[in-house]
Amino acid sequence: MLSFNAESGGEIDSTAWEAEANTSVGRMAPVAAWAADFYYAGGHQITVTATAAGDASAVTVERPPVVPGVEYLAFTYLGPPTTGSVTWVELRFYDEADAQLEAHRAPLAAPGTGVYRQITSGIAPAGAVSAALAVGITGASAGQVLRTEGSSIAPLYSTPNPSLRTGSVLPMADWDFEESVGAWTVASGAATIARSSPWGAQAAFDFYSLTVTSSTATTSVLRSGIYPIGDTTGENWRAEVYTKVVSGGWDMSVYMRWFDAEGNLVFTSTVPSLPAGTPGWWWRSADDPAPAGATQAQIEVELTATAAGAVLQIDRPALWQTLPLTATSADSKSASVQLILRELEVGQLLTVWRITPDGGRTLVRGPDQLYDGTYVIPSDSLIIEDYEAPLGVPVYYRIERVWPGSSEKSTRITDPPITLDPGDPNLAWLTDPARPGIGLRVLVKQAPEWQQAIEQTAYRIRGRATPVVIGDVRGSREGDLVCWTTSDEQREALRFLLATGNVLLWRCAPGMGEPDVYVSVGEIQYPRIVTYAREQWREWTLPFTEVDMPTGGQVGTAGWTVYDVRLEYATGYDVLDRYETVFDLAIDRRT
Fold it and tell me: Which of 94, 192, 203, 496 has its CA 20 to 30 A from that of 401?
């Protein structure tokens, strides 16, 4: 928003800047010990020289227009006269009469006497029509010179910036820590917070971060400001912070607190505390839907120092509305759970566990194999359909990711648990794990009367009352499931399901006393329930033998429809090129 002459440090002349207090404004072309292309534009710098001891400052002559309510970013490169000099940049807003309404100052914590980019920011207040950039020295000595160039004023989101989380409700002053600690406070505990120092020493983004120091090995709670989020009930929000352990150790959790329009606390999210990552910078995030009645939110960071004097850096906290990293939904029509994973790292190895209330873990099946830690993530999002989740039992999923050759795992856990509605307890599901799209629900007449055979031989010894029995391990369960199909279509569907002889999964509603079991089905019978020729009901006797869970992948999906084919393929020839048979098309098995 500034002209070339104001931005470039007086490349044309010094008239874009004016002396404000105890100073004279000039320009210079310093001897350069750096590359010729270091400057953003040309080789000149504006000089601000203190005429006497005291505070000295200069300001841009230009007043570019601003819009109230819009957040603006301002920065310049400052060259302090000494390392100990207190120099600063300031973003100012003015009304229609050119009266100053607000000023946002960011002091430079200079590590030397070079040239350092110092950033400030602010939201244009009501009545603001223009802005200006000012620089200065606090407590200058007579004759001290402050150099400046590369100045800028611009709307915060006018240019791409890797440090931004688009849509974050935190103002820049609260997430970049270039000016101070912003609105962050220590709600409880022994921790203290301050802006890092000097410039460039500790930062994941830009040049400063928030330094947290705990004098004791205790728990402290940090809170951001409270920010409006509107009426977004049920919509997903994410809180995120970057952290770096400087000394000691830290356990931490990041979560959200929700408030109504009057500022009353509505709900506090709950997230487990985990050790902060080390070494270097790590990010920690948490997702949660906005509860009913919430129109404001804040980030809360709970930190537990494991040693006295521990130091932690925090940078770029953000709070924004987004699709969740993980999402689950239950489809009772196909007895499956859909798991959506977002923001994945392509090339990482993926493990997905289904976890039941008793703590049992089972690997989830994908199109190629089980997600067992050898599956390479092919894209930044995945849709996983779990057709083997138990009926009527709350389950959640644990997702683990790791780079090949590394032992550092990134973990996500779906919350809350999800439950498949079992429906009528007299019905049970038969699913082919390899072809889940053709699973079938049948009416149960009689559950299996299980038997478990064992190979053993008894040796009776003369003079001994009890025999010596030598045997193998007891075999798996065997029994007959007796069920009914009630229509010709259902009969043919069950025949089709059994045709391959694949291992099936039998799932029934809780209360039947039967856990889910993988079975091999032997020779079947399915006579009419009465001798009338047109009778459609059949009574099936399915001999089950319990077997291990198969490890192969799944082919197809129950959600694949004709409409999906129409959306994905322009012509029938495209369909013929992709599928060898009609059955391949029906279950979406592609060549």
Answer: 203
**Rounded to 5, what percent of the chain is helix, strand, coil?**
5, 45, 50
**Under 8 Å between Cβ of 432 and 504:** yes
Tokens of 117: 């980019």
* CA distance to 176, 181, 277, 399, per residue, from 317 (Å): 8, 12, 16, 24
Alpha-carbon distance of 179 to 121, in angstroms, equals 8
Give the C-alpha distances (Å, rounded to integers) separating 85 from 21, 113, 203, 292, 338: 17, 9, 22, 51, 60
Q: How many residues does the chain have?
A: 591
In degrees rounded to 5, what are phi and psi of residue 7? -70, -40
> Quick check: pTM over 0.90?
no
Please state, in angstroms and rounded to a whole number, the distance separating the CA atoms of residues 537 and 530.
8
480-496 tens-digit pLDDT: 999 999 999 999 999 99
Helix (H) or strand (E) holding 244: strand 236-247
Q: Which residues contact 26 (CB under 8 A, 6 or more apart)?
A: 14, 46, 47, 49
- Name, in order, each residue with C-beta under 8 angstroms of 40's C-beta and a sequence gap of 6 or more: 7, 8, 149, 150
* Joined tokens for residue 12: 């044309």
What is the dihedral angle through the alpha carbons of 401, 403, 404, 407, rounded to the nearest 10 degrees? -80
- The residue behind tokens 């997430």 is 175
Q: Is the peptide bond before 279 cis (omega within 30 degrees of 0)?
A: yes
Of the CA atoms within 13 Å of residue 91, those in its CB half-sphere come to: 30
| Burial class of residue 200 in the structure, from the number of CB atoms within 10 Å of its CB (0-12 exposed, 13-18 middle, 19+ buried) | middle
Cα of 467 vs its chain's centroid, Å: 64
Distances (CA, A) of 391 to 477, 508, 586: 21, 7, 26
Amino acid at 199: W
Mind listing the pLDDT tens digit for each residue in 291-334? 999 999 999 999 999 999 999 999 999 999 988 889 999 998 89
- What gap in Å lies between CA 381 and CA 203, rounded to an integer? 29
